[in-house]
Amino acid sequence: MANTRGLEGVVAAETELSLVDGERGHLVFRGHWARELARSRSFEDVAHLLWTGRLPAPEEAAAWQAQMAAARTLPEHVYRVMDALPAGLDMMSVVRTAVSALGAAQDWPPSLADAIRFTAAVPTIIAYRHARNEGRSPVAPRPDLPHVANYLYMLTGRHPAPDHVRALEAYLVITMEHGMNASTFTARVVTSTQSDMASALSAAIGAMKGPLHGGAPAGVMDMLEQIGTPERAESWIRSALARGERLMGFGHRVYKTTDPRALALRDVVTELAGEDPWFSLATQVEDVAIRLLEEHKPGRRLYTNVEYWAAAVLRAVGIPKPLYTATFTASRTVGWTAHILEQAAHNRLIRPQSVYVGPMPAAPTTPEEA
Ligand code: CMC
Fold it and tell me: Which sites are catalytic (predicted)?
């Protein structure tokens, strides 16, 4: 059922990219279960699937990985733009500015080469700025490493542990694409004006930054840190709800059951950090939160969303909290660019209408005012 406020239930596009079934908790990327892809496929493979419609054949994989790796180094001016930004600026603002500075190779129509370029660039942008924030020398990308291993390598300067790479890869794959979410819709609206890919992505990053969309995982972590021990969960959550606060990592516009991405990521964290007392805290807080949300908003069907367990994966692989939303952006750039290519291929200007509910002037007296 459509609801004008927030466009709930409004169909804004036809897409071959993903199916999000909020009642059944299903997520499909171009004919494949997203959970299965996250378990078994590389970042590069699933990017290829979303952009081209098929997984790369085994004999294509190495050349495809090399093609993506070749686009990791940024033009010199982008580093200079980042260096000119004030210290303390949040990472999403840095990524938005750097992506904008990167510009599009061509204005219209957007190309697969553009999609590769931006996707390969985002991890370099994050790692470069993170190193600068910490007063370290940035670590240059290593073209011989796959996409996800290279991201962790650039962040730390060390060769990453294989189980960390696998866990982060599962996260980056399962969050790549998700139907007509706010940032993807934004990217399609900008593209529909025949603007370029850098403009569409800068706008999408702006939408992603907000706490109701991509900004939630840091809020999840703040909540768990404040709760501290399982015994404090009930009283902490009751007071937060009584103050009218939203629990980060719960509720979803589309999912009226547990978000399948949350289930997948919970499995990832169980494998990686099942013995960690922090994992047990997250599990117990989740149970209490779902029970109290049902008590607080009966019948609203508020369950765990992807951001709750995303925060746990990111923590377990050592991503610092200020980089959580930017790391989500590194993944979703694939979905955005796939939607931009799809929008451009069947373009029509997106231009909805509004209903005027303000006062009317006095009755017109001349034909021009009528
Ligand atoms: N905690 C407490 N109450 C909630 C929550 C929550 N997390 N989520 C929804 N509600 C309540 C809300 O107050 C409203 O109550 P009422 O109708 O009495 O005013 C009711 O449930 C329905 O909420 P809504 O605002 O109509 O739902 P929405 O579809 O507009 O919002 C949401 C979806 C994700 C913005 C919301 O659930 C929320 O704010 N969650 C917390 C932030 C969060 O975790 N965001 C990440 C979303 S998943 C990542 C992504 O796909 O982008």
Answer: 252, 307
**Could you tell me if the CB of 261 is within 6 A of ligand 1?**
no
Check if 250 has its Cβ closer than 6 Å to any atom of ligand 1: yes
Read out DSSP for 116-172? HHHHHHHHHHHHHHHHHHTTPPPPPP-TTS-HHHHHHHHHHSSPPPHHHHHHHHHHH
Please choose from 258, 302, 306 the residue to mutate so as to test ligand 1's pocket, defined by most ligand atoms within 8 A of CB.
Answer: 302
Q: What backbone torsions phi and psi does residue 32 show, to the nearest 5 degrees?
A: -120, 140
- Two tokens, residue 146: 């796959």
Q: CB–CB of 43/169 below 8 Å? A: yes
Q: Give dist(CA 83, CA 133) in Å, integer.
A: 10
Query: How far, in Å, from the CA of 198 to the mean position of ligand 1?
Result: 30
Query: How many Å lie between the centroid of ligand 1 and the Cα of residue 331?
Result: 23
Domains and CATH numbers, the chain: 32-212+321-345 (1.10.580.10), 216-316 (1.10.230.10)
Determine if ligand 1 sits within 6 Å of the CB of residue 184: no
Q: Which residues are catalytic?
A: 252, 307
Residuewise pLDDT in 10s, the chain (370 residues): 456 789 998 999 999 999 999 999 999 999 999 999 999 999 999 999 999 999 999 999 999 999 999 999 999 999 999 999 999 999 999 999 999 999 977 789 999 999 999 999 999 999 999 999 999 999 999 999 999 999 999 999 999 999 999 999 999 999 999 999 999 999 999 999 999 999 999 999 999 999 899 988 889 999 999 999 999 999 999 999 999 999 999 999 999 988 999 999 999 999 988 788 888 999 999 999 999 999 999 999 999 999 999 999 999 999 999 999 999 999 999 999 999 999 999 999 999 999 999 999 998 777 776 6
ipTM for this prediction: 0.97
How many helices and strands (H and E) does the chain possess? 16, 3
